[in-house]
Design goal:
The structure is a homodimer of 212-residue chains.
Chain A: E1 2-5, H1 10-21, E2 27-30, H2 41-46, E3 54-57, E4 60-63, H3 65-75, H4 86-100, H5 109-118, H6 123-146, H7 162-176, H8 185-195, H9 198-201
Parallel strand pairs in A: 1-2
Antiparallel strand pairs in A: 1-3, 3-4
Helix pairs in contact in A: 1-3, 1-7, 4-7, 6-7, 7-8
Amino acid sequence: MKLYTYYRSQASFRVRIALNLKNIAREDSYLHLEKGDQFAAEYRAVNPQMVVPTLLDGDVKLFQSLAILEYLNEKHPEPPLLPADREARAWVRGIALINAADSHPLIVPRVRHYLLDELQLGQDKMMGWIRHWLDAGLAAMEALLGEHKESGQFCHGERPTIAVIALVTQVTPAKTFDADLASYPRVMRIYDHCMAIRAFADAHPAKQPDAE
Amino acid sequence: MKLYTYYRSQASFRVRIALNLKNIAREDSYLHLEKGDQFAAEYRAVNPQMVVPTLLDGDVKLFQSLAILEYLNEKHPEPPLLPADREARAWVRGIALINAADSHPLIVPRVRHYLLDELQLGQDKMMGWIRHWLDAGLAAMEALLGEHKESGQFCHGERPTIAVIALVTQVTPAKTFDADLASYPRVMRIYDHCMAIRAFADAHPAKQPDAE
């Protein structure tokens, strides 16, 4: 499979983890989002939303990281990234969406550029914005983990799911942006457990060939 | 089922459409997001993220609209909200996420309040922000519909899917905030077709008992 990716993209990070967990080989095509590679006509023809990741599986074009994770899980069921139980699946998908829908989209490059370039808010207010929304997501995850009896070393059960993939990719930017993570002990226990697993560690932004 | 909802919430709108399409009866519990009902301790115990919707199916608590739609579709398979074909499912989920992950979260009340109260940007810049992100999502949907051979009266195939539910809930706020919709003829054709269907029309924000 061919992955259009950027090392710092949390959504690309999610897809890299899933591909690693399922032992699917990939070829990377690197875009530098801060330099605007995503706006080039060539990439716009691949992904009209001009965001990463895009995954090509032969001539099947896949976009939006959570849709890609569901596709990979359906096509390559082992190891499963969703629980067998319907109610647990809903919980796992809900946790994933707290990151992928309600936190991460607020801090991506295009939003940071709008805050800095269009609204001229300056670096301090932009950093405050980022920490505010990362914190909101982390606090929600921490509370939900506390009330979920199946959470332990992972978000649910004894293996990685899309929930824990999203948790890890919520923590990584929080570390980059110096958020205070001590308030989220359940989240951090799970993060540390996952980052000791090779499929997660190898997918980390700092480990990518395009990392600066 | 019991739905914690707010008439203007686009995420609640998505769940209302799905429940209507599947002919599932619901009891509504209304929260007024502009008055801060979502921050009350009683609701925080239900939904630690302090957002709507939350859906209770007996003692099963469901959160995040797309996770709820997947759950409803798994428990009540007819009529299906996802295509039978795996590649089509990925496309449908991707379209849904363009709205639910990359557009709508940027314009919800908590974000608008941050822009107005915390950043003191004023109404004009806030409206510019809203239109900018609604446009980005609509433009991506329009382009993707143009390259998808199965798009017609709906986003995919001959019946509603989670993609079209997300498209409708992308257009509704765009109308509220006076976005220019003439640039999105494919999107608007589908929107108009859907809003003539009772399950969609009855779920519209203006039709809810808590509408002002």
